[in-house]
Structure formats: C-alpha cells, structure tokens
Amino acid sequence: MPTIRFEGQDYFCAEDETLLDSLARHGVMLPSSCRAGACLTCMTRALKGTPPKSAQLGVKDTLAAQGYFLACLCKPVEDMEIGLASVSPRYTARLLGKELLNESIVRLRLDIPEGFTYRAGQFVNLIRASDELTRSYSLASIPADSYLELHIKKVPEGRMSTWVFDEIEVGDELSFFGPSGDCFYLPGSSERPLLLAGAGTGLAPLYGILRDALEQGHAGPIHLFHASLATAGLYLIDELRRLADAHEQFHYTPCVLHGDAPDGGMQGNIVDIPGQVLGSLSGYRVFLCGDPPIVNGLRQKSFLAGASMQDIHSDPFVFTPA
Amino acid sequence: MSSVYEQLGGEPAINAAVDIFYRKVLADKYVIRFFEGVDMEKQAGKQKAFLTMVTGGPNSYTGKDMREGHRHLVAMGLDDSHFDHILCHLRSTLAELGVAQNLIDTVISVAESTRDDVLDR
After folding, report:
1. Domain 2Fe-2S ferredoxin-type, which positions (chain A) (predicted)?
2. May I ask the CATH architecture of the domain A91-180?
3. What is the pLDDT of residue B1?
4. Cβ within 8 Å, pair B58-A36
C-alpha cells in the first residue's frame, strides 16, 4: 500500500483507489470538479515519487515534465510526496557583469550557485537582502552557459529596478529563489516548427528557449518575433541576426508599433504579426512572453490560427508599479 | 453498446475536439462576450469536461454544477439563442471529425438535456 505524504502527514492509499479519493477518505479535500481527468482542477505536483503515466493524460508536456499530474486519475504505484510547490533553497550568487542592452534594459550576469539547476526560459525571484523586496525575472541564459543571465527593465520609480540600475555593482552578492515556470523547450519532435513571440524583456526567456532549442538540435523552422514600441526599445538585434545567419532554420523578425522598423523587421501590432507572416499555425509549438495583454492577445490569435491549446506555452510578466 | 466517447477514440479524440470546438466558439461574435476575460486554459478544461460528458465519457457532472457554473452568465443575458449557437458549434465540430449522424444526434440530445440547468430555470 503506497504512502502519500502531503503537508507533513502520511496517508495510506488503498489498492485501486485514486489519490483524490484516498485523501478525501482521510478528510483532505483537494479541489476537484469533473473527477474524470478532463477539467484539470485537481492538478497536483509530485515532489517525490513518480505518478503513473496514465495520471498525466491531458496534462501539458512542460507541466508533466515537472511532475504535475491529475489526482483524480492517479492510482499511486509507489510512495509519493505531493504538494503545490517544492520549497527552493535561497541561493546567493556573485554579480559577474552588468551592462546596458539599450537605454532602459540592463543585463546582469551572475555566478551559478552550487546546486542550482534550471531549464532555459524559467524565472527566478530576485531578493534585495536589505528589506527582502522580491521580483521575478526570467533567465536568458542556457544551462550550458557558465553564468546566469537576467534582463531587467527600468520601471519609472520601480524600487527593485532602480536599485539594480543605480546601486548594485560587479562583485556584489545577490540572493534569489527558484527556478520556476513552465515555458521551456522539451526535446523530441524536433522537426515541428516553433513560434517564439514577445515584447520588451519578454525576449529574455525567448532568447534562452531559442538557444536551448538550437543547442538541442531543433531542426524545424524557428520563428522569433520580438516587439517594442519603437526601434530604440529593441535589443540583442546583432546577436539575433548572427544566430539567424549561422542557423538557416532560425528566422528573426524585429517588430515595432511606431516608426520605422529595422532592416528585415515589421511595423505593426505584435499580436497580429505572427499570423500575418506565418499563416496557419497548425502543428506549431508556441512560446509567448511579455506583458499580459500582449501574451493573452497572442495566445488567442495563435490558437485561432490553428495551434493546439496543449502546445501554447506562455509566461505573462506582471510589472509592479512604483 | 460502447459510448460515443469510446467510439470517437477516448481522451485523445476529445482533446482534438476541444480545439476545434473552442475555436468555433471564439470566432462566434454572437456568443464571444460570455468568454471575454476568462482564462483560456481553464476554459478549455471545462469544455473538455463538457464534451466528455455529452459523449458519454467518464464524468461526474451534476445539474447543480451546470446551474452554478453558468448563473453569472445568465445574469449577463445568456438565453436560449446563445445555447442554440453552442449546440450548432458542437454539431459542426462532430461532423468535422467524421462522426456519423446518428451519433451526433445522440450527443446533441445529451447536451440538450442540460439546457434548463445551464439557463437556470
């Protein structure tokens, strides 16, 4: 009889009993609705132990890869610990480099702390040690890099970004928790086309996902659309052009809402541009990052253009106003 | 006799059906206002549960769930005409998947049986 550990308590699961029913029998009522593997309400995460594959039917691949499963379908075959999130240790890393990428975005490069692992495209929660102020920033690096890279946008009067821009220096120790997030590339079906689209520092995770896909030998077309209000807000243009020159399957389109676009770029609304350029998105794996209105708009357009809901991965950034 | 759910091919077939069905719903200007601002993934999950139910797949939905889940929409003006649109999208989704007419009729009659619960009367 497998033991299920949840919030520090152990519960025995009877043979042929689902985890959802077993916990309910012990008085632990996980949120649930259809109890048939359709509505995803009872999605739970295995922190230890492996859920049976049959309990991950219909769970998005990037979530399944992190141990998420449906409690209503799960008949445990081994001891498991379940919960909503694993507790991250607090990491400390030395700042190796700090460089402006354009007038309002700075690139930080950090040491990789002992024991820290991540997937390209995930994010960390950076902490200002003096008062524990915390903000989420995506990783733009890939695990093969010898550093962690963050792109931080200057928010007018933003407490964290002002501190990052004005006060921290190379050699300082920075603290963070993580990683988190389910917007990342998984190997397999490397012929399928990828759409990467986002605005502003939404490029950070997309840059990571792009380099990760190339590193893992993705052979199908990869289309990156990076948008800003105007050309001055774009960044890493030269690096991305170099990658496009070096990899024939990779196509880079800088996009601006106002004014002239750079060479090879487009002027217009980023929400509409991928569909205009690519037409049908049937069969695409889609990654969307940036402001929530843009991500939500792109998600709907991508879906209507034929991408399957299971294949649309997104990371809407929430900006904390000053 | 096996259910339409099994005849369609079970869970993977319902996944494919949800994409087609939800796309039709989102493209329908007459009903779109009831779907604006909702989380697309959660909504797709609910639609999958709905399609699983009306095709006779494993489910534990009750009339009470349907009633409570739509009450805020009824307050926004959801009525028979909107319900009819959704049934049309369901019919054409099944037809697109090559489901036989008699099976479509079976599914529609199950969906039809939820009408009074959905419209809270």
Report:
1. 2-88
2. Beta Barrel (2.40)
3. 58
4. yes
